[in-house]
Amino acid sequence: xxxxxxxxxxxxxxxxxxxxxxxxxxxxxxxxxxxxxxxxxxxxxxxxxxxxxxxxxxxxxxxxxxx
Length: 67
What we know:
Elements lengths: L2 H15 L2 H5 L6 E2 L2 E2 H20 L11
Antiparallel strand pairs: 1-2
Helix pairs in contact: 1-3
């Protein structure tokens, strides 16, 4: 899969993770280890997006041999 395709997929994943539909699942007064579930979700989703972006943006050849 080419880098551009991975970045488009990552954008779509991030758009879904931060959409009102996905965030709505965690808008409940629930505490996880004393922290609101919504806050944990937002930071966890942000961390996943940043980690996947770092992996997708790494330098190296694509499958078609281009750097």
